[in-house]
Amino acid sequence: MALVVEDLRTYYFQPSKTVQAVDGVSFSLLPEKTLCLVGESGCGKSAVALSLLGLIEPPGKIITGRVSLDGRELLAMPPPELRQLRGQDLAIIFQNSRYSLHPSLTIGIQLVETVLSHSGVTVSAAREMAVDALRRVRLPDPVKIFNRYPFELSGGMRQRVMIAMALLLKPRFLIADEPTSSLDITTQTHILDELMELKEQFGAGMLFITHDLAVVAEIADEVAVMRQGKIVEHGPVREVFQNPVHPYTEQLLQSL
Ligand SMILES: Nc1ncnc2c1ncn2[C@@H]1O[C@H](COP(=O)(O)OP(=O)(O)OP(=O)(O)O)[C@@H](O)[C@H]1O
Question: Which of 39, 66, 123, 234 has the greatest number of beta carbons closer than 10 A?
Answer without folding.
Answer: 39
